[in-house]
Amino acid sequence: MLNQLKQKTNLTSLEISVLCKELDQKLENYYIENIYHPDFSTLLLRLNKPAQPEIQLIIEAGKTVYITRYTLKKPIKPSIFCSTLRKYLLNGRIRKVEQPNFERIIIFHILTSKGNFKLITELFGKGNILLVDEEEKIVQALTYKKMRDRLILRGEKFKLPPPTGLNPEKLSFEKFFSQIKESNGELVRVLTRILGIGGIYTEEILKIAGVEKSLTCEKLTEFLAKKIYDALKEIFKKRDNPQPCIVYLNHEKPLDVLPFPLSIYNGKHLEHYLTYNEALDEYFTRLRFEKEKMEEEKKFSIQLEEQK
User: Fold this and answer.
1) How confident is the model over 126-167, as pLDDT tens digits?
2) DSSP letters along the chain, please?
């Protein structure tokens, strides 16, 4: 199985689509009370809304976004990046949360006294967080880059990255079949690349369709392709009635966090949650605490060696 023992560290486009729907419903008309920058790739937004409980939203570039019920350490002094975000976004109202073109990107649309802004989180590669104004110009970015297809520079027009694959939400069977037949290699790898939904979901789709994952693209018949396409649609329907869960390798080590159970994890221990966001909070907060613990132990070990 692909990624069988590899612990999840970021979200797939399919998972982001479930998360975005939850966040859009939950965060609408919440105001940004404060912004913190706990570490280089992480933002913490404190949100409030009249007659509603306060919300703490974590944004981790290249990884995930979720509402947390846990307490994070807040730096005493804000970074330049954090100060700029505060300047433009404090007291701004969240109007919408969206995922553009089924990509691994989340956009927060925020209305402020200074105009309409977008806080854009890129969850692919090393990730990025950008503030974009109503003229689509980049006001501030966590990381500035010059790339062949776009420039992430202050004052430049923000462009979405080129599509990583086909958009499964708008994909016709004809386009799906022709794209596979034009490709070479094992079916499971080609599907993972052209659909961009993650290897684990591709394997689930092939299992539902009853198609061998090692089958090569040139041997795929139209009949089998239709079975795969129908299985893809079946997986996407599950988003309408999510059953979020954390998958454990054993009863202690979390392996994956899913919007709904997958049959390829049959036999593994699952813990279920009411919302996908709650599952993400438990999963990624645990990873964060484990990372902090390891860093503290490493720091202590170095200090001990120096004293010796």
Assistant:
1) 999 999 999 999 999 999 999 988 999 999 999 999 988 889
2) -TTTTPPP-S--HHHHHHHHHHHHHHHTT-EEEEEEEEETTEEEEEEEETTEEEEEEEEETTTEEEEESS-----SS--HHHHHHHHHHTT-EEEEEE-GGG-SEEEEEEEETTEEEEEEEE-STT-EEEEE-TTSBEEEESS-EE-SS-EE-TTSBP-PPPPSS--GGG--HHHHHHHHHT--SBHHHHHHHHH-S-HHHHHHHHHHHT--TT-BGGG--HHHHHHHHHHHHHHHHGGGS---EEEESSSSSEEEEESS--GGGTTSEEEE-SSHHHHHHHHHHHHHHHHHHHHHHHHHHHHHHHH-
